[in-house]
Amino acid sequence: MSHTIRNQAKLIARVRRLKGQMEAIERALEAQQPCGDILNLVASVRGAVQGLTAELIGDHLREHVAGPSVGAERERGAEELIEVVRRYLK
Q1: What is the count of structural domains for the chain?
Q2: Backbone region of residue 6 per phi and psi (left: phi > 0; alpha: psi in -120 to 50; beta: other values)
Q3: Does the structure show a pLDDT above 70 at 78?
Q4: In terms of C-beta density within 10 A (0-12 exposed, 13-18 middle, 19 or more buried), how is residue 27 classed?
Q5: What CATH number corresponds to the domain at position 78?
Q6: Rounded to whole angstroms, how far apart are CA atoms 63 and 5?
Q7: Distance between CA atoms of residues 47 and 65, nearest Å
Q8: In 10 A of CB 74, how many CB atoms?
C-alpha cells in the first residue's frame, strides 16, 4: 500500500486547510484589506505548502528509496524524487 493511501485522511485534511487559507486570501483581497495583512496570509499558505511538500518527500524517501530492497525499485523511486525536486526548485 502506498504511503499516500495510508496517510490519505491526513493529507486531504492538510489540503483542505490550504483551500481555506486560499479562500481567506481571496476574501481579504475582496475586502481591500491592507497589503501587509494579505502578505501574511500568503506567507502562511507558502509555509503550509512547503510543510505538505516536505511530508510527501519524506514519505517518498522512506517508502520508495530507503524501503525497497530491490535496486530497480530504489532507483525508480530516487529518479522520481529527483524530478520532483528539480521542478520544485525552478
Answers
A1: 1
A2: alpha
A3: yes
A4: exposed
A5: 1.20.58.1000
A6: 12
A7: 26
A8: 15
Instruction: Name residue, grid cell 517518498.
Output: 60
Helix (H, G, I), strand (E, B) or coil at 90: coil
The residue to which cell 520544485 is assigned: 88
DSSP secondary structure of 6-61: HTHHHHHHHHHHHHHHHHHHHHHHHTT--HHHHHHHHHHHHHHHHHHHHHHHHHHI
What range defines the domain where residue 69 resides? 3-89
Chain position carrying cell 475586502: 31
The span from the CA of 76 to the CA of 65, in Å, is: 8
Give the residue with greater pLDDT, 33 vs 86: 33
Model pTM score? 0.78
For residue range 8-61, what is the model confidence (pLDDT) as tens digits? 999 999 999 999 999 999 999 999 999 999 999 999 999 999 999 988 888 888
Phi and psi for 33 in degrees, rounded to 5? -70, 160
